[in-house]
Automatic annotation (TrEMBL):
<keyword id="KW-0520">NAD</keyword>
<protein>
    <recommendedName>
        <fullName>NADH:ubiquinone reductase (non-electrogenic)</fullName>
        <ecNumber>1.6.5.9</ecNumber>
    </recommendedName>
</protein>
<feature type="domain" description="FAD/NAD(P)-binding">
    <location>
        <begin position="5"/>
        <end position="311"/>
    </location>
</feature>
<dbReference type="InterPro" id="IPR023753">
    <property type="entry name" value="FAD/NAD-binding_dom"/>
</dbReference>
<dbReference type="GO" id="GO:0050136">
    <property type="term" value="F:NADH dehydrogenase (quinone) (non-electrogenic) activity"/>
</dbReference>
<dbReference type="Pfam" id="PF07992">
    <property type="entry name" value="Pyr_redox_2"/>
</dbReference>
<dbReference type="InterPro" id="IPR036188">
    <property type="entry name" value="FAD/NAD-bd_sf"/>
</dbReference>
<keyword id="KW-0285">Flavoprotein</keyword>
<dbReference type="InterPro" id="IPR045024">
    <property type="entry name" value="NDH-2"/>
</dbReference>
<keyword id="KW-0560">Oxidoreductase</keyword>
<keyword id="KW-0274">FAD</keyword>
<comment type="similarity">
    <text>Belongs to the NADH dehydrogenase family.</text>
</comment>
Length: 397
């Protein structure tokens, strides 16, 4: 009998999670047919997106080769999927050499994720969008420090040693902390005064961590301050031009670099893929992640709008939620293949019951609420917990 082909588009945190889950629940077989798994991704390796700031600070490699994930029964195709032809049960893609091709599927999981939001081109700065942009950020601040070492004008030296990070979500917090620590290390090596290095984190809200209690926000800000980050609340970056950042309240900051970390939007490639979408551009799925009107097609992760049918709660774009969806989809696919009722989506009781942030080597912040009590842990233990999360999200543990 012919093999059944299960294609996963996107080897991000959701795609890898669901690949593992379907493989494990089906054990690679259904009704006597072998399941052939084919993972499609446009990148040459899995990008550890949650650690995007790392190449911007320490230069760490965050791309894991696909060979790490392609065990027996799993093939990898490097290609950019352009559309899903659900009537014919095939996808169209452009391969790594630029050739157009098609691939037939029996089961398809669309997990093409999100992209990092970019400011308008005339707003200046560099957005932390991908590993290449991250490497550009690192090059820039290091070149600025080199220039600062030869600069005699104290004001210009200070400007070269100042960075503004626009956007104080988890990515902005982690990026600013790691930048401050990396800059201090480099400044010390160049014989520069550490007190001249400044990292400003611009927060549009009135405090950090608005999803949790105020005292956790305060503690996070204090921990950031110990790393060398100054948080400015109620202020958005409007633009960066010629080394001057203009803020929404009219203030200006002299900076050597402005880094944008202003959130995620659903992958714009979805707009031309031929799947039903919400006005915001996420794939419309039912409570079992099935794409409406496309038999055998499922979608999870940042690219799908996933709603708890009981509470109406919408899942957020996080790798934590993507991982849970991936696990559940393994069981759903198995149930659908066997023609029995499938488990339905259930939102986490509260997204903010636990929150973990990495703030550079041996520094972290962990908040959790249990039995109505708030627990806050900082330091090495919280850092180790965050490292575990990063490794689990990329199936490295
Ligand atoms: C800097 C940063 C820090 C973050 N920190 C956290 C955190 O601490 N905790 C947390 O829970 N979440 C965090 N997030 C959010 C988290 O990264 C996302 O929620 C998660 O990556 C979603 O996983 P995904 O697989 O749905 O999508 P993605 O990770 O975006 O993966 C999508 C995959 O699809 C591939 N792809 C895209 N288009 C195509 C196409 N047309 N054809 C083929 N392949 C394609 C991409 O190459 C990619 O491999 C962070 C995000 C960023 C940017």
């Amino acid at each position: 009998m012919n093999d059944m082909t299960c294609i996963i588009i996107g080897g991000g945190h959701a795609g890898l999670g669901v690949l593992k889950a379907i493989k494990e629940t089906t054990r690679g077989m259904t009704k006597g047919r072998r399941i052939r798994f084919v993972l499609f991704d446009k990148q040459p390796g899995h990008v550890r997106k949650v650690m995007m700031f790392r190449p911007a600070t320490s230069g760490e490699e965050i791309i894991v080769p696909w060979t790490h994930y392609c065990s027996e029964g799993v093939e990898f195709v490097q290609g950019t999927v352009t559309s899903v032809e659900s009537g014919e049960k095939r996808i169209r893609y452009t391969d790594a050499q630029g050739n157009e091709a098609r691939f037939r599927y029996d089961l398809l999981v669309v997990a093409v994720g999100s992209i990092v939001r970019r400011p308008d081109p005339d707003q200046g700065g560099i957005a932390l969008t991908d590993p290449q942009a991250a490497a550009g950020i690192r090059e820039r601040w290091r070149a600025n420090l080199q220039k600062a070492a030869g600069e005699t004008n104290p004001e210009e030296r200070k400007r070269l040693m100042t960075i503004a990070v626009a956007g104080a979500g988890i990515s902005g917090v982690e990026t600013s902390a790691e930048l401050a620590l990396a800059m201090r290390k480099e400044a010390a090596a160049l014989g520069l005064s550490l007190s001249d290095t400044s990292v400003y984190l611009l927060n549009a809200q009135e405090r950090l961590f608005t999803g949790g209690p105020e005292k956790a926000g305060r503690k996070l800000e204090q921990t950031l301050s110990e790393c060398g980050v100054t948080v400015l609340h109620n202020r958005k970056v409007m633009r960066e031009e010629a080394g001057v950042v203009t803020l929404s309240n009219g203030d200006c900051l002299d900076v050597g670099l402005c880094v944008w970390t202003i959130g995620l939007i659903p992958n714009p490639a979805l707009r031309s893929m031929g799947l039903p979408l919400t006005p915001e551009g996420q794939v419309l799925v039912d409570e079992c992640y099935r794409v409406q009107g496309s038999p055998g097609v499922y979608s999870i992760g940042d690219c799908a709008r996933i709603v708890d049918p009981k509470t109406g709660k919408v899942d957020q774009m996080t790798c934590f939620e993507a991982g849970i969806q991936g696990n559940r989809l393994g069981k759903i696919v198995m149930a659908d293949l066997e023609g029995r009722p499938a488990p339905i989506h259930k939102a986490l009781k509260n997204n903010m019951d636990a929150f973990n942030i990495g703030l550079g080597e041996n520094r972290g912040f962990l908040w959790a609420r249990k039995w109505g009590l708030d627990f806050i842990i900082t330091g090495k233990l919280a850092w180790k917990a965050k490292k575990l999360v990063w490794d689990y999200a990329s199936l490295l543990r």
